[in-house]
Amino acid sequence: MNEVMTNEVKKKIVYSGVQPSGNLTIGNYLGAIKNFSAFSEDYECYYCVVDLHSVTVRQVPAELRKRTYEGLAVYMACGLDPQKNTLYVQSHVHEHAELSWLLGCNTMFGELSRMTQFKDKSRKHAENINAGLFTYPVLMAADILLYQTDIVPIGSDQKQHLELARDIAVRFNTTYSETFKVPEPYMPKSGARIMSLAEPTQKMSKSDPNANAIVYILDKKDDIIRKFRRAVTDSGSEIVMGEGKDGINNLITIYSVLSGKTCEEVEREFAGKGYGDFKTAVGELCADVLRPVQEEYARLIADKKYLEEVMKLGAERASYAARRTLSKVKRKMGFTDIPR
Ligand code: TYM
Questions:
Q1: Quick check: CB of 143 below 6 Å from ligand 1?
Q2: Which residues pair with 46 in a beta bridge?
């Protein structure tokens, strides 16, 4: 074992993933990706572009391929150094699919039937309620458990999936003896659920057909400001959080997370100002925060060779860890090795 591996073993493990199933939004950024780099120094971090998850919904193959590269470039543009973090593509590490089958045989139909995301997606894609959509949380559990993960930074919409991953791990450990680390979620206090700008009672989602509801990480400054200026708010005028003020609550939250100020500080800063001024200020701040990310992204996406080197390095590192867990799982379940 080399020196790097020795250090890796001692550190706690952080794991998360983002689907390359659409352009990434500020929900993905504020709820998840922005928080990833904070773990890089003290933890062993795995951040995955979860392309296998994406095909639960029909994808245009060329688009999926393109967005997989883009996902990796966004990770790096958001500050993830590929030397300090294992950045990789899920389908490059076949152990994910293999463990998913084994865990699926330890997951109950009833548990999967209760997943709210399955129910939502079945409603949205009524013409394609495939088995993968149903077993999706098992693959997510496999992602996490393969790396003996301690902490999973996620937005609040993934909490139920994480709880299932914990239940699967505990059940497996009880049945076959201690095998998996039982992971904990990490959700930011503020920003774990960024809402749609058009329908602020709904989560901002990259699959929303209304482009005005979503601010993409790679949106141009003018578009960002225009979308915030159009954001749906109530008929009030004061910049204060409150019951039933979903639109303004969302904008204050976004401003607070982008600026690092508390919501109360934001309210004080905008005391006496109207919704119009505030919306413009949120848009400008958002565009300013995203500008360096977008500049770095433009540089990275033009360098396919470098992205492929990162992919290769990530796949090697991830496979090393994944192989160890998978072989342990197979041994415990009674599978035989190919005789040497
Ligand atoms: P995905 O690709 O939908 O979203 C990626 C991350 O972004 C968070 N997120 C949000 N946070 C706040 N506000 C929002 N509006 C918002 N929209 C999305 C998500 O919570 C997520 O953290 N199943 C996962 C991907 C996945 C995964 C994993 C995550 C697969 N395997 C293992 C963690 C660990 C998903 O579809 O995320």
A1: yes
A2: 15, 86
